[in-house]
Specification:
Layout: H1 4-14, H2 16-55, H3 58-69, H4 75-85, H5 88-99, H6 104-129, H7 141-153
């Protein structure tokens, strides 16, 4: 009881006024990282569509979809997404000195884990909604892929 009032006063005066601006500042890199995940998924699926339109090869389509399923674990392709979040390192250094925020690397790592998880969910959902083995009419495959991609991005 004797600590509650001073602690509440400290939070109200020294932390609460800054919370909105801190969240806005942190959300910039986080949002750009998740936007990059979305763009990467979109780009990869567009490449599958273009390749299929050129080749009309169902076997190759299946291979490309299998490669898409491995996208969340492809560190080279996912790296641009992760780099967007690395900007948090600089932003959190300022918070560390002002508000005693520790474990900056943990915050960045967890954010990157969520990005990978988002990509895992996107490719899994894509695979569930589109299975090349169930496509009888190859003329409609590219259209179907596009529709599934848009559904996943929604």
């Amino acid at each position: 009881a004797s600590v509650s009032e001073p602690a509440q006063k400290c939070c109200t005066e020294n932390i609460q006024p800054f919370l909105t601006s801190i969240l806005e500042e942190l959300m910039g890199p986080v949002s750009s990282g998740f936007t990059e995940v979305r763009s990467l998924f979109d780009k990869e699926v567009n490449e599958i569509i273009q390749d299929f339109q050129k080749t009309n090869d169902m076997t190759r389509l299946k291979e490309n979809v299998d490669q898409l399923m491995a996208l969340p674990y492809n560190s080279v392709k996912m790296e641009p997404c992760y780099l967007k979040v690395n900007q948090l390192q600089e932003l959190l250094q300022d918070l560390k000195s002002r508000f005693k925020v520790y474990h900056i690397d943990f915050v960045i790592q967890r954010t990157q884990n969520f990005m990978q998880e988002l990509m895992e969910n996107a490719v899994y959902t894509f695979e569930q909604l589109f299975s090349p083995s169930h496509q009888a009419d190859s003329a409609k495959v590219a259209t179907t892929i596009e529709k599934v991609k848009l559904r996943v991005l929604k």
